[in-house]
Every structure is written in structure tokens, then in C-alpha cells.
From TrEMBL:
It holds the Pfam family p450. One of its GO terms (molecular function) is monooxygenase activity. Its main location: membrane. This is Cytochrome. The chain crosses the membrane at residues 6-24. It comes from Forsythia ovata. Gene3D superfamilies: Cytochrome P450. It is found in: Membrane.
Amino acid sequence: MAEFLLQNPFIFTFITIFLLWLIIKRVVATGRKNLPPSPPKLPIVGNLHQLGTLPHHSLQSLASKHGPLMLLHFGNVPTLIVSSADAAREIMKTHDVIFANRPDSSVSRRLLYDMKDLSVAPYGEYWRQLKSIFVLQLLSNKRVQSFHAIREEEIALMMEKIKESCLSSSPLNMSDLFTAITNDVVCRSAFGRKYRDGAIGEKFLQLISEFLGLLGTISVGEFIPWLAWINRVNGFDARVDYVAKELDEFLEGVIQEHMELENSSGNDESGENFIDILLKIYKDNTTGVSIDRDSIKAIILDVFAAGTDTTSTVLEWAMTELLRHPIVMKNLQNEVRGILNGKQDITDVDLEKMHYLKAVVKETLRYHTPIPLLVAREAREDVNVMGYDIAAGTMVITNAWAIGRDPLYWDEPEKFQPERFLNSSIDFKGLDFQLIPFGAGRRGCPGISFAMATNELALASIIQKFDWELPKGAKGEDLDMGERPGVAIHRKVPLFAVATQCYF
Ligand code: HEM
């Protein structure tokens, strides 16, 4: 080749000029762009090494130096980090349609039937159809109310367990208790029954826990494609394939069972579970919505991925803060017991009156945002945000945890003070961008009512029916407040507490 070029100086000159023109064009084009500030990056990994084990903390500290919109590079992937309420409003309201995509991921593809679920489905007609199924059919207010009996029964079982421990004054692992209750409520709403006991139940819970872990793993191959071989060598890919295959077999069995027992829940729509509802849509060609068997399985996995861990972290951190703040615990107990006035069952109407309870939950969502970095978005086209040029394909991460602790919007943000919400209209529904634990806009969470119904009823019940202390006379300030890395942030060490008095 070199010999050929030397013998043909005209071609050699032409190619050289052409390459130079390409380089200059690129430099000029980049130079003209007004990119957001970026911390220095390393070759190959970019800024990945700066994420640390708890990225919401590292990104908050980087943002304090570089501003509310910074451009990082995760390997090859340009990533916009959003760290203020104003910037979040630009992404999720002003330019919501442009940022309505999710980044592609080979792990999600393999675990979620080529992205046939709602959470990671690319923005478009299929996503729109699934969103309407979630909002209108699976998680409408009416449907969430129809699951009240499930919540009540499962919480009654939890109360019995606590009562037993209360009688023997033994410490209870509250973290495990909250994980179990949220799993069981989701499981019964999804399948109409629990999968907890026996070999099948245990295997299912194990698979779901591994599934959540794999979805939350930062896999190098996603960001540096030529290093994807590492996932094959270290067994990560094999694990993904194993979990995908085993979950598929389990879900196939469940679907088959429901098809055989068709109409088992009769015509009473209030008794329907998610699988029955989805099977109806699958078979009915008149609804204008078409889903296949894989969509049903992907949707069910979405419900477990998005609805279990997230909900239980709220209970875990709320209880942690109540034990650290005995006055807040007392205020809450007074409200709940005052409203119930000796009545044992708590209805949705009772919960509506519990303003302090709602303030405690809001403060927990602000201070311990369950998914601190929300769910990543991706720009579908070039766009200018707050004067900065953002290229199509840029991944977007919103640090909702940092926004919830921004002194620009919050007085004494590092203190747990539910009172701040008592005379305030600030809510978490996606309109107040200083409090966005559920995201906002088109891709906002459709499961808010479902999650809040379980959280409020569980919290009100354990506060109404028991008095609480930390084991061995420990004080609130002794509690380890460390966080465990993951998509949803749990306590690093489980929360143990003692129910000292029982009131039923
Ligand atoms: C405390 C509990 C929960 C929290 C903190 C939470 C948080 C979130 C967040 C941050 C997002 C991304 C929003 C965005 O991109 O703007 C999301 C999306 C989603 N959530 Fe939740 N969620 C919770 C409970 C639930 C429950 C119970 C379900 C279902 C039963 C659910 C289903 C979903 C789905 C399907 C999406 C994807 C929506 C889309 O991409 O269009 N979530 N959630």
C-alpha cells in the first residue's frame, strides 16, 4: 500500500488533504459547541474511576465544583449529570420529549426480553401502549384500592410476627421484615398468590434478588465495548443468561397456570391480579393494544424490579429516622392513635387524615431518596439546555438525592424534619422539581399510589400497635447510618429494633 501511494503522489496528496480536512472540520465543529463543564478524564475509562462505591455522593461533590450541569464520560459514553431542580425541570419538563429515551443495555436486553418491559423500552409507540396499560389498568387508583385487602392481610401477618417478638422482648430484623412485606404484597398483586415457602418459592425469591443485583451492576462492557470480553471471563454473562433462563421458566409456568385456571377469579374485576389483566389484553384484539407472551413476562419483571426494593427502602429508612428522633416518633404515634381512637383496622380514609404520617414519608423520600440517581435517560436528538449543547445519544443522570439536599431549596437540608412539609404544598408527584424521588414527565413513575399505599399502611400499623426502642438500650446517635451500594439504596447493616409494648 505504502509503495503504491509513493508511486502515485497525486492520490497520496489527495488522501492527506482529505484526512486533514476531516480532522479540522471535527475540531472546528467541537470548538464551536458550548459543552457543559467537565472534570478532567482518563484515557479509556473517562470519569468512571470517579464514581466510587456510592456514586450519588461522588457526583454531588463533583457538581459542587463544576455546576448543576456537567458532562462526564463513562468510558465512551458522554453522560450529562443533572444536580439542581432548575436543571432537572429543563430535562424532565421543558425538553421532556427529547429526553424520553432510556440508554440501551445488553444486560437489560437479555433480562427483559429485548426491552419489552416499560422501564427500559425505547420511547415510541410500543412504550406508549405499555404506559397506558400501567397507568389505566395495572396501577390506576381504583386498582390500587382493590388491593387494600391484600395489604391488610399481609400487614396483619407482619403484626403477628412483631407481637411474638414483643412478648419475648427479642430484637427484630426490621430490614428483613420490610423486604418480606413489600415482596409479598407485590407478589399477590401480580400473581394472585405468594411465592415464599417451599423449594419453588425460595428459588423464585433468590432469582428475583439476583435479577435486581444484575440490573444494578455497572458492567464495564456497556461503556467500553472492546472490554466486553471481561464479562465473559468473570462469569457475569453466564449469570445473566442463567437468571434470564430460570426466570423465564418460572414465569412460563405461572402464565400456563393462570391460563388453565381462567376465570378462577370470576367476573369480579376487583379480584383480578396483574397476570390475569395482562392475559385479557393479550387475547383481546379489540383494545388496540397488542402485547405478546414475552411482553407479559417483561412487564411482570418490571413490577418486581421497580416496585419491591424501592418500596422497602422507604420503610427501612423511615423507621431508622423514627428511632433516631424519639420526638418525631411520639408526634407520629399521637397522630395515628388519635385518629384511630382505639379502632384496630386502618382504612384509606383514616390514612388520608394522617398529615404528619405523610410528612414523615415525604421527608424520608427527600432525605433518603430510594433511587438517588433515578433511572437514566438518553437524548434522542441534539438540544440546547441552559445554554449548553447536548448531543443526541448523551446519557442523562439526575442526582435527585443531591437535589433533595440542596441548601438553595431546603432549610437545614441535612436534618430530618418532617415538620417542613406540614404547611407546604411541595409534593413528590413530579411538579416540584426540588423533590423528585419518582422522576417526572413522560417517563415518570406510574407506581406512586401503589408504593405509597403499602408504605403508609405499614408504617401507621407498626406505630399504632407497638412502642419501639433500639436493642440493648442503644441511643439513636449510635445507629450506623451507612448505605449499601445498589440501584435502590438500603442500609449497609440491617436495622434491628425491639417492640417494647403491644397495643392489640
Ligand atoms: C418508593 C417506591 C418507588 C420509587 C422511589 C420509584 C422510583 C421510580 C423512578 C425514579 C423512576 C424513573 C422516573 C423517570 O425516569 O423520570 C421510576 C419508573 C418506573 N417505576 Fe417506579 N418507583 C417506585 C415504585 C414503583 C412501583 C410500586 C411500581 C410498580 C408496581 C413502579 C413501576 C415503575 C415503572 C414501570 C417505571 C418506568 C416508567 C417509564 O419508563 O415510563 N415503581 N420509578
